[in-house]
Amino acid sequence: MAQIEKNSHTMEQNSTVSNTLEVDGALLPTPSRELWEKICNFQARPDDLILATYPKSGMTWTQEILDMIQNDGDVAKCQRATSTDRHPFLEVVFPYKRKPDLEIALEMPSPRMLKTHLQSHLVPPSVWKQNCKIIYVARNAKDCLVSFYHFSRMISLLPDPQSFDKFCEKFMSGEVLYGSWYDHVKGWWAAKYQHRILYLFYEDMKKNPKREIHKMLEFLEKTLSEDVINKIVHHTSFEVMKENPMANQTAVPSNIYNHTISPFMRKGMPGDWKYHFTVAMNEKFDEHYKKKMAGTTLTFCTEI
């Protein structure tokens, strides 16, 4: 696994997107070399829980589930603040916040739940040294691409994705925020054989949320009653979360997230890609996908 200290010497400021930095070929929402050095040197604690995903792969949803688990299904406690304020992002700087999330994380009491979209080899080394528990959620490439496209349309911090065709080409080549989807999901898949990582799939969570919640509970060594688990399933359903201002991101300033262009929580159902891909695009994507995923045991379903 590549060492993050080495990566920090290969950074270049990206001139086309403000508040971003290129690290080891991946564009990150980190505005400066100084902040990246702080991320590299971040000191994890043994009882930290890390939630990791590629963008638009179920992070907000899984965060809500984990927050409900940690608070024994207490809905009021889980509505104490918005999802962007409850658990810090290691590498993200929100321009409307008084300080970077990294600094907020440093001030938090234990146990902490921290979020990241970083590829596995870019995670602060202390996370591995402290043997932190990590939950990773992966989503099939086609639905992830579609969701990322619509997200890029509504967020002012990212460049205009232009047409879906052009965004598809950039996604396949890894020229999007956080880099290659292929590298991301495969890197974390490989890391799970060496570290305490629960690797989950977005589609499995959709098909049988209760079963996946049981996996999380076992991984976290926690027990909840079936009544509480059913409560968690209900309150973290797409329909309920979409109406929850503490989870649907409508509290984020409109100059950052423009929900009139596209809601943050748009559809959330596997298979939506079929309404965006032409036959030719799908054939080209499938051919590229086979090459990029050759040799891995990692498999996805694209509809349920």
UniProtKB/TrEMBL annotation:
It holds the Pfam family Sulfotransfer_1. Keywords: Transferase. It is an enzyme of class 2 (transferase). Its EC number is 2.8.2.-. Residues 46-296 form the Sulfotransferase domain. InterPro entries: P-loop_NTPase (IPR027417), Sulfotransferase_dom (IPR000863). It comes from the Eukaryota. The keyword DNA damage does not apply. Belongs to the sulfotransferase 1 family. This is Sulfotransferase. It comes from Galeopterus variegatus.
